[in-house]
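INTERNAL TRANSFER SHEET
From: sequence group
To: structure group
Subject: Probable peptidoglycan glycosyltransferase FtsW

Please process the attached sequence and return the structure record in the designated field. Keep the field labels unchanged so the import script can parse them.
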Amino acid sequence: MIRLARTNRSVIAEWWWTVDKWTLLVLMCLMLLGGVLALAASPAVATRINLPPFHFVYRQMVFFIPAIAVMIGVSLLNVRQVRRLAAIVFATGFVLMALTLIIGPEVKGAHRWLQIGPLAIQPSEFVKPAFIVLVAWLFAEAQRTPGVPGTALGLGLYAMVVSVLALQPDFGQLMLVTAVFGAMFFMAGLSWGWIGSLGALAASGAVAAYTLMPHVASRVNRFLDPESGDTYQIDRALDAFHTGGFFGRGPGEGEVKRILPDAHTDFIFAVAAEEYGVLAGLIIIGLFAFIVVRALRHAMEEQDLFLQFATCGLVALFGLQALINMAVNVNLMPAKGMTLPFISYGGSSLLALAFAMGMLLALTRRRAGSNVAPPSGRRTYA
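Return from structure group:
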């Protein structure tokens, strides 16, 4: 076993002694749970649509090693390198997002994907965390240096992103980006006039989506009045929680995965609850909550505004996505079509989340000037 001494000044040794190992461990646990639940949920889905039983399992496993490599590789970067990488990913991803409107295949009435050889990628998944880091930098610069139009530039980036999301259309991602952007707006201490304007814009957009988009109106109506339409998936998901009880029916004994079209993606939380019980659901919630609380604690201990804003923004993006997915599963929100981070099937989602959490790990590493010293009592540099 390789031992990394504190006197070792290599990049790997510096990373090992400065990275938040608890957050890293919990992220790895979530990825492991994703593998276990892929084995539980996806074979039944694959068989139902005439694919080999382990089709989705193999495809998901193919992305696990690259995802771990991306997360660890990005976490090795320093703060300046994280900003530069975010800018590159945002610029590239935004161009690809725009291309989905022109050459992207239509899937369930939306153009969100690009087919590159045998792979289908969803560029918006990568744009989200890069956008958050860039906005955090712009807001921080606006406060550090009077005269820098950081707020206006941040609003410009937001308008660009949500415009393309609305055209795809992908209102689940649009709402998520808006919620996180609004939270960062509030954290940046901007005037209530700006915050109120953003809130009014978001409300107007929601009303417009409800009025102009029949599928959005249908989802909201079915949530408010189940008798107004088909609530089959939600009803079966609720049945899964009921029949699973506290300890579950046992591995492989679940029934909901055999009848739900999206059991391996949007409703994998219901599959977990049916086979492993509400206890397993509480453990999953606890893992997500641990990452969110620990990242927020890091942000509170930082003096650098960019690190505060970026850390809070990234973990808000991560936590809200998990919250929305689980809330939909228990019928606390209208269906959104959003994956459960690191657990639902999806290569683009897995790699994009690894990228986002890699940046979070990089930004929360112990560094010179931090209020918190490493275990040895000496400051270290990242």
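Handover comment: The two ends are 24 Å apart (CA to CA). DSSP finds 13 helices and two strands in the chain.
Transfer complete.
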